[in-house]
Amino acid sequence: MSKIKKLEALEILDSRGNPTIEVILKTDDGIITKAKVPSGASTGANEALELRDNDKKRYSGKGVLKAVSIVNNELNKLLIGKSVTDQETIDNLMIKADGTENKANFGANSMLGVSLAAARAGAASKNLAIYEYLNTKNSFIIPCPMMNIINGGMHSDSPLDFQEFMIRPKGANSFKEALRWAVEVFHTLKKILKDKGYATSVGDEGGFAPNLKSHEEALELIIDAIEKAGYKPKEEISIALDPAASEFYDTSKKVYFEMKKKAAKKEFKTKTSSEQIKYLEELCKKFPIDSIEDGLAESDWDGWVEFTKQMGDKIQIVGDDLFVTNTKFLEKGIKLKAANAILIKLNQIGTVTETLQTIHLAQKNGFNTVVSHRSGETEDAFIADFAVATHSGQIKTGSLSRSDRIAKYNRLLEIENDLGKKAKFFKAPLEKS
Description:
Layout lengths: L3 E10 L5 E9 L4 E5 L28 H15 L7 H12 L9 H18 L4 H4 L6 E3 L1 E2 L1 E5 L12 E5 L6 H21 L19 H14 L9 E5 L6 E2 L4 E3 L1 H4 L7 E2 L1 H14 L2 E5 L7 H11 L4 E4 L7 H10 L4 E4 L1 H4 L2 H13 L3 E5 L9 H8 L3 E4 L6 H17 L3 E3 L8
Parallel strand pairs: 4-17, 5-16, 8-12, 12-13, 13-14, 14-15, 15-16
Antiparallel strand pairs: 1-2, 2-3, 6-7, 7-8, 9-10, 10-11
Helix pairs in contact: 1-3, 2-3, 5-6, 8-9, 10-12, 13-14
């Protein structure tokens, strides 16, 4: 039985050049594993705390030496001698020792680094891949990718309020084929943008960030790219949106405003919750959109309920900031019938065990699950294995550029290849009717 001999952490950089934490776990029988922790830019108010140094003399206050110290000292002492195959015990010991609801003492980044490294060590001790080790069923489902090909909101300098415009190659017969379709659309979109005189630089998650006039123009360009790449919009490749509406919601006035144009104009348009829902419905009628994530703000629960009532039988309605991978908020959503799917981000909650509990609760209650990256990523591809292990069926890991995003796609190609005929590509359509 492999037991933890030593935990060691160091400060590394994420895909935005900001500090994050890497945890190295060593066992008494020679196993060494590593885990790198991602970081988000558009974050939910109820996410577990990401511990930062706030020392303005280092990395503009974004250093993580406090988190490193916690792993090297408190968590190291707490977990030495514990079996790496007992994931739940390891995670629960950290949760209990932290003693807060939002991981405020140890930091979710410190705890997640240890939790991920422990899962890897547990798998290694049994000579299994992560997707095998964490799988509780006798089958393997390769997730359908949701690729962010146009960036807006907090993830770019473009004037678009909506954060992500994604394509979903749901008509493909394998992950390998789905990835190829998406790559071809991505490069076709680049040519279209270039021919129209738009910049083809990319945002945080690798999608293009052109200076477009409207959300509708972005969607029209994507449709054009799908068709010119030789595919059928809706039937073969559909569109998914992540407005990240909390970023342009005024909680005191309870209105949605034009976030990107606010600074440039003294007057800007606003929408009530009902008007925001109507706008999203109109987009779904006009374009082949079958999934909308965070179309309403995290505090606008009444809006979520109404949106789900009106559109929940037609499209996938995904809660991200609304649920923050937390069973407490998911239970509320299930009770109120707010959303019909949940985005899964390990660092929103801080441990593998709690994330698995959230996925189980969601799937038990008929919610779709989408495993997701963060905008500040690393080359660590844990979530690729995790999506397969948990039968999530869908994965968000960015665009078709930037090696921190491509690492996850390449890992899924490896998994599909290793599984051979055992691999089943997620084919269920997201549209309900």
